Amino acid sequence: MKKVICLFICLLCLCHAQQPAAQKPEPKKFPEEVLQTPPVVFAIGHDYQIMVPVVTETLLSCEINGKTYYDANNGVICTATPVRRITVPQAELDAAKEYTLCCRVVTKRGEYYTKTEPLQKKTYKFRPLEKTDNIKIFMLADTHNRVKAPTDAVKYYDKELDLLILNGDISEGLSNYNNILTNYKIAGGITNGEIPVVYSRGNHELRGAMAEQLPLYAPNRDGNLYYTFRVGPIWGIVLDCGEDKDDDHAEYGHTVDCHSFRLKETEYLKNVIANAANEYNTADVKYRLIVSHTPFMHINEKPFDIELDIYREWCKLLRENVKPHLMLCGHFHTIRVVRPGHAWDHLGQPCTVVVGSRPGKTMDEYTGTAIELTEKNATIRFVHNTHKIEGEDVIEFK
User: Fold this and answer.
1) b/e burial code for range 56-66 (CB count within 10 A of at least 16 → b)
2) Greater confidence, 11 or 88?
3) Residues with Cβ within 8 Å of residue 389, at least 6 apart in sequence
4) 170: closest CA among 201, 137, 216?
5) Does the residue 281 lie in any domain?
6) How far is residue 360's CA from residue 263's CA, in Å, rounded to a whole number?
7) Residues 375-398, buried b or exposed e (16+ Cβ, 10 A)?
8) Does residue 144 share a domain with residue 284?
9) Structural domain total, the chain
10) Residue 302 burial by CB count (10 A; 0-12/13-18/19+): exposed, middle or buried?
11) Long-range CB contacts (< 8 A, 24+ apart) of 13-21?
12) Do residues 101 and 122 make contact, with C-beta atoms less than 8 angstroms apart?
């Protein structure tokens, strides 16, 4: 009996020895299997926020000139949210002209002994805006979940593009995460993380169950979606008008408080003006832009008649203090250059306003705005996704 038992044990050991060893899964290839899109470098104040959506829990950091910057919250490196954000000083990245994303995919996040895949890196070239003349900007607004047509329109500039502006209603609404990804599919696909991008929220991005979470997924300053930015010789302010109807409109179902939001934004604008010497009145600022999804002006078939006292004050503050060169807008689904004193100007607009987005009747059509800045003027071209020029104007600077 003992011999039989020993023989049985030997057979078990032999079978076990012949079994192939369990193989560890191959690490995910970075960036292809980790990042959903290429990174996007958003300009916020005097910083950049390098942001990118990920498909798995990932510890992501950024190296610039040997210094490491983390996506961290009070000392804890973030892995929970599906969009990573790494804030870096603008001057550092502008000087280095490249950055390296460093990735550790998390296989187990525990209270003790978190486990990760091996460290992987990818270096991205970066082209800061250093020239002061012949600056090429493309503005997209009201893409409403379109990706290909707006992207094709921007290809009008090919590799000469210096700055991309996403000016609101890029998504149809924020009912789901895929709509948020539209920002990254467009901006990441166009720029590949190699040039700066400016982002402004539109009124449709106040709608849907995820609207309140947008600051987790979009560039912002201390949670606010209005802020100033610098890109080379350009100083700009992103203004957020919120919704385009009164807060008690039945469409919103008691989900918005834009009145209080606008009052807070008015105080912010006054603080920017009080700090003009460090904002738009520095010696190296040659162009002053306003980026606002909503133009807060009348248009023939769409009267703008909410919060008129607030918007009239904004116009006065900007006109008398900031003295901007251009105001870039969307919202009205039309293409038009509107100079002060025009019939649509019912609040005393602070400068010439470019309303420049026209989504077509199908998802395959879109017209956006190409802007070329020189020290004397701005050339505006409304560009269809086929690169047909649908309108052109030259705005002389005083």
Assistant:
1) ebbbbbbbbee
2) 88
3) 381, 382, 383
4) 201
5) yes
6) 35
7) eeebebbbbbbeeeeeeebebeee
8) yes
9) 2
10) middle
11) none
12) yes
Count of residues in the chain: 398
As a whole number of angstroms, the distance between CA 280 and CA 268 comes to: 15
How many CA atoms lie within 13 Å of 49's alpha carbon, on the beta-carbon side?
23
Tokens 């959506």, located at residue? 53
Those residues with Cβ within 8 angstroms of residue 111's Cβ, 6 or more apart along the chain or in another chain: none
In the structure encoding, which two tokens stand for residue 130, read together?
A: 């250093």
Tokens coding 248: 């008690």
Question: Could you tell me if 71 and 84 are in contact, meaning their C-beta atoms sit under 8 angstroms apart?
Answer: yes
Same domain, yes or no: 82 and 145: no
**Residue 328: strand pairing partners:** 291, 354
Examine residue 28 and state whether it is found in any structural domain, yes or no.
no
Residue 116, domain extent: 40-125
Give residue-wise pLDDT tens across range 209-226: 999 999 999 999 999 999
DSSP state of 322: I
How many CA atoms, within 13 angstroms, populate the side-chain half-sphere of residue 76? 9
Q: Are 84 and 231 within one domain?
A: no
The encoded tokens of residue 131 equal 């020239």
- On the question of pLDDT at 9 being above 50, the answer is no
Question: If residue 42 lies in a helix (H) or strand (E), which one and from where to where?
Answer: strand 40-44
Are residue 140 and residue 112 in the same domain, yes or no? no
Identify whether the C-beta of residue 240 lies closer than 8 Å to the C-beta of residue 219. no
Nearest to 378 by CA among 136, 162, 200: 136
Clarify whether residues 329 and 365 are in a common domain: yes
Each residue's pLDDT tens digit, 21-50: 556 678 899 999 999 999 999 999 999 999
Using N-to-C axis directions, what is the helix angle for 258-274 and 308-317, rounded to 10°? Answer: 10
Instruction: Examine the domain organization and report whether 74 and 157 are in the same domain.
Output: no
Looking at residue 113, its amino acid is Y
pLDDT of residue 312: 96
